[in-house]
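Why do we bother with holo predictions? Because pocket geometry can differ from the apo form. Keep that in mind while you read this record for 4'-deoxy-4'-aminopyridoxal-5'-phosphate.
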Amino acid sequence: MANPLDRIKPRVRGLKAYTLKPDRGAVKLNQNENPWGVPEAVRAETLRRMGRREWARYPDFVPAALHEKLAAFAGWRADGVVAGNGSNELIQATLMVTVGEGKRVLISEPTFALYRQVTTVLGGEVLSVPLDGALGFDVEALLEAIERDEPDVTILCSPNNPTGCRISEEELERLLTRAGGIVVIDEAYFEFSGRTVAPLLERHPNLAVFRTFSKAMALAGLRVGYLLAAPELAREVSKAVLPYNLNAFSQTAAEVAVELYDAELRPTVERVVAERERLFTELQNIGGLAPVRSCANFMVVRRRRTCASV
Ligand code: PMP
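The structure, written out:
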């Protein structure tokens, strides 16, 4: 009998599905969410607005009000914003409109697994430059790869999941100037770094920035992410996004979170950053442990392997 699985692309058969082990710890750390939960004021205002809304009606085709608020929040233009059902959707959409057989995507590993996964499913080739010995970006090696292999897309996660390293504006500008392809910076954790590469959008039409409401914004359960790019590039990526991708509840909650960010969410981000720095100092004082500086809400800790003699 014919095996239907023979019709699946061999490169997909060769992949392991992107999964997450169920967490069993007393403190949940495995998805880098906001540990303090959504502020009561954000929850209450979202419920109030949803109570007045007609649920039988579709959400906005283009969530224009949210795009306007995100543009103001990010210091960018509303026609260069695309909101998505989590930033995962926008990673997928961007790769869908750029990647196929013969296309190359440059990444720096270890990093968020989805870039490799989606590129492979779409038939593209992944080029990987390892992080350097200190778990930072090897900018010279990335520049070399960009010049030698001319990737269609380069994706860097900054701050990087799982190492917390960040690419500086100066380093990124060197990559953007040399790159013939699109350069994507995944800023899922930018709030914890106190910096953003968004100001470079003005000068670099080949830059796209992804962000999420799942980490600092404390809305992982509602699935909202957004992309910032030149309007022409944003328009092309939108073509791979499904209509009504963002449901009315998530749209509303995201608008409220942006409106109340300074009053309600920024203080929780500041607490995370203060704790991260305290923990970094404390861990340095423990023999055999070497914490790695992080710009995110997680941290790698290296340990010296001690072999007990037998
Ligand atoms: N990018 C990075 C680097 C992430 O770590 C995550 C979540 N683990 C995402 C994107 C996905 O975010 P979202 O929940 O918005 O799809």
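DSSP finds ten helices and nine strands in the chain.
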